[in-house]
Every structure is written in structure tokens, then in C-alpha cells.
Amino acid sequence: MTFNDKFKFLMDITNTNNTTLAGAVGIDNSAVSLYRSGKRKCPRNKEILRRMSDYFAASIKLSYQRKALALASDYSRFNHSRPLPEYSDMLYQWLADELPQTNTLVDGILNENISSSGTNNIMGIKSIDVIPNATSILYKSEGKKQAVISFINHLLTLEDHGTVYVWIDDDVYSIFDNKEILNSIQELLLRLIDYGYTICQISPSPVNTTQFFEEFFYWVPAYITGRVKSYYYPRMRDNLFSKISIIYPPHVAVYSDCLSTVSDNSFTVMTTEPAVISIKENEFKTFLSYCRPTMNIYESAEDVSKCFHRILNTHVNHIQKGLSLPPAAMPEELITEFLNNNPDSLGVNLRTSYQLSTVFDDLRNVDICPLATAEEVIAGHVPVIFPVVRQQTAVYYTPRSYAKHLQNIIRIMDTYPDYFFVPIQYDPDDNVCIIVNEGSEAILVRTALPSMVFDFNHPQIVQNFQEYLYKIANEIGYSDINRKKIRAQLKELINVLEKA
User: How many other C-beta atoms lie within 10 A of the C-beta of residue 310?
Assistant: First the structure.
């Protein structure tokens, strides 16, 4: 990777904008933009590079960020928590191309644990000691938060790291009604995973689209580690009760049951008594036997290819949100260029998956896609994106190729009355693509490292994805007069690009 590739990668995984980094490092916004676009190389002033490294080291706090960095740099030590100055120094060496070769390293860090200092008091909620063969009763919502935090902190002190059973039959945003507490608990969960724990989770039944997406994205950093198995109960529940059951047999269990409408009058039990823990473990496993996997997660090229081929070749209505213009509407010459620059990609399967006769037939197909401005295309900032291909070499649109792709979209709109193109604002930092086979399956493709595909079959979850995408499409408008307006918008952009 070049310096600019590394720089853009760090900006992306830390979700940093140009203004924030410029202020932290003490340089102009324009300089950050030039580094990001590749028009300015590694700074000669090493102090600037040092300040960049300090900023990024402080911003990389979560397990999935470290894992992504370790994969991108091919340097395993990035995957483990380090003291901030040491992590900053490693980042500095990476940016400056001064990292030691792998075969010269003594990776004593590989088995180091993360320090658990600073977790005993979160937003005024003090962790309590977990006493052997004892039971504590904690009251109201504050007691529930205290019990969960104490449970996790206790696990951080143990030497054996097995499977933690988590059953939270309610919206976590309702239970832990403070964003900073939620973020702290999320970091503690990721710390458990870093220690070597795995998590078996029973998810609450999704009652609405907003709740589903809040819950799902809250857990995504943990899902990305591959150490969380998530299940759901296939029948709708009435959401009358709010239930928490978190067990780490045979050491400790936390549980609480109350009416959802009177959660502040509840009490939570935290126990280390073996007989009680065994009962709660059996209860969890019995309920788990009625559950099904929430999703399948695919990372290998073969699994991703099979998943993508299946969903695109299922004879149902499609709606999808992409990251660039739709690959299925791409001219053959652009596909050829991409595959020539990515010889290890899924080219053969890609050609098989994208068959226009299958994707654009008598069924409704809705493509929600970012539409770049002429200025962005002319500047060479708009990448060609295949959401299921691990791109080795970036391919960027030229004004000519972007215009040809738009012309092909217009041709498809004119040929297939049930194909709809819905333009949204182009966002270079977006890294999530969603494809829905209406009523049967949904996949969420994460293109940022570590890239993976989340595949869902639960009807209610598929419905949530479908509602989410149609809400976007309906807010913009895509049929009747809006279809004509979109066609005119594309035609106008083509005319500008052809003159460039």
C-alpha cells in the first residue's frame, strides 16, 4: 500500500473527516484532502507524520478496527491492544514504510491481555465485587446497569475464557438509556472477545425497523470478530416482558424479569451460586433449542460468490442500495477493465451472477444508487465498486466510462418498465450495500476491511430491510413523473461528462 492508501484507510476506519484531522494535526483542510486523494505524497515533515500517528492511535479503540488494520498492514501486532505511545509508534513506522519485517519480530504481544483499568466506574455506575457462592439483589434500572457492568468486569478477571450466554429480550437502547453507557458496555464486550471469550446470543424479536437496525449495528463490531453466534426465536413474541439473562457457567449469572412498561420497578439478580447458575444455563439452552440462526456470515470468496449468485438469480422482486452505479447495469467493456485489473477477483462468478435477462425481467427491480457530480467524476474520485469482490487494484471512473454506464442505465429504464433507478447523494465513506429479495432473503455487504456478507432469512428481518429501503426510495420518488425527472437528470449529467 502507498502512503495515500494507508492514509485513506486510517481515515475510513476511524470515521474521521478532513476538518477533524486538520485540527488535530495542525495542517490545512486542503492538505488533508490532497493526502486523501493521492495528489500529495508522504509528508517530508516527520513531525506532521508523528502527530497523525498519535491521532489515529488514539482513535483506534475497538477490536474490529485493530483487526482491519492488522489485515491491511499484514502486521499481526496491530491486532492487539498496546499502550498508546507504542501503538502510535507502530503506526508511524507503517506510514513511513519503516515497519520491521515479519520474520524479525518477536511477537510476545500475541498473548497479552488488554488492561481493564478505568472500567470500574462508568458514568457514575460503580462496579460491585462478585462474591463466591453469594447472591446480590440490585434494584431499578440503575441496578440492572450495575449488574451487567459488574458481570463483565468480573469475567475480565478470570483465567478461563469460554462461552458467555446472552439473552436480552428487549431493546438495549431502552434498558441502557444512555449512549455513553451503551458505548462503554460495547467496548467491554469487545474486550471480553479480545480476551478469548465467545458469545452465544439470543436476539430480541424485531418489532419495528428502527429497533432492528439499532440493535444490529450495535452488535456489528462484535459480529465482525467471528466470535459471536446470534439466534432468534422464529415466532413473534408480545414484548410484554423485558428479560435479561446473562450467564457464564459455572461462575456467575445475571438475570431480571419485569413488565416492559414498569421496568424502573424491577430488580436484577446477580449470583455465583452453582445451583442457580446451572438452572439458568439449562433454561437458556432449552430456549436456544427452539431458535434459529439470525444470519449467516460469509468471508471467503467462494461463500460470498455462492450467496451473491443465489440472491441475484432468485425469481422475485429486488430492491437494493449500492455504493456506486449498479454493476448489473455496467457496460461489458467496464467489467472487462475491472477484471483485468483484479485477476484474483471473482470474475467468472461475477459474469454469471449479473445476467440482465434475470435481473431485469417482468419483476420489479429498484436500484438505490449514489449519483456522483460531474466534478467528482472529472476529478477521478469515483471508484467502480463491486460489493462482493475483494478489489486488489482500485478502478476509477473516467468521464467517458461514467457516461457510458449512465447511458446503459437509461437504456434499461427504457426497455424494462419495472426497473427503477433511484439516485441518492454520493458518499465516499459509505461502506454498506444492502440487497433484498422481497419476502425471502436480505444480504448486507460490508466492503470495508474486514469485508464480509451478512445473510438474513428471518421473514421479519427481511421485511425490516425491505421497509428501510422503500422508505429511502419513496422519500426521493422514483415512479411516474419522478421516473421522467430521473431520466432527464441522468441525460443532463451525460451531456456534461461528454464535453469534459
Answer: 14
Instruction: Give me the domains of the chain, ranges plus CATH numbers.
Output: 3-111 (no CATH), 121-293 (3.30.870.10), 297-499 (3.30.870.10)
What is the C-alpha to C-alpha distance for residues 326 and 73, in angstroms, rounded to an integer?
A: 30
Cell 447495469, residue? 329
Determine contact, residues 278/198, Cβ cutoff 8 Å: no
pLDDT of residue 104: 33
For residues 287, 288, 292, 294, the Cα torsion angle rounded to the nearest 10 degrees is: 110
Q: Which residue type occupies 58?
A: A
Cell of 365: 427491480
Per-residue pLDDT at 111: 30
Of 154, 158, 138, the closest CA to residue 146 belongs to: 138
Q: What is the pLDDT of residue 105?
A: 31
- Using CA atoms, how far residue 247 sits from 152, 155, 175, 235, 270, in Å, is 10, 11, 18, 24, 10
Q: What's the pLDDT score for residue 198?
A: 94
Identify the CA nearest to 219 among candidates 237, 202, 233, 196.
202
Q: Is the separation of the CB atoms in 270 and 253 below 8 Å?
A: yes
Whole-prediction pTM: 0.65
Distance CA 500, CA 386 (A): 26
Residues 6+ apart with CB under 8 A from 417: none
Enter the C-alpha cell of residue 469: 429501503
Whole-number pLDDT of residue 26: 92
| pLDDT classification of 185: cutoffs 50, 70, 90 | confident
Give φ, ψ of 396 to 5 degrees: -110, 145
Lowest mean pLDDT among 392-396, 403-407, 438-442: 392-396
194, 114 Cβ separation under 8 angstroms: yes
Residue 180 exposed, middle or buried by CB count within 10 Å (0-12, 13-18, 19+): exposed
**127 alpha carbon, distance to own chain's centre:** 30
Other Cβ atoms within 10 Å of 389 Cβ, number: 23
Summarize pLDDT for 427-468 with one digit per residue, the tens.
777 778 889 998 889 998 877 766 788 999 888 888 888 988
pLDDT at residue 289 in the model? 93
DSSP string computed for 101-149? PGGG---GGGGPPPP-TT-SEETTEE-----TT-EEEEEHHHHHHHHHH
- CA–CA distance, 488 with 325 (Å, rounded to integer): 17
Separation between Cα atoms, residue 361 and residue 134, nearest integer Å: 65
354: three-class secondary structure by DSSP:
coil
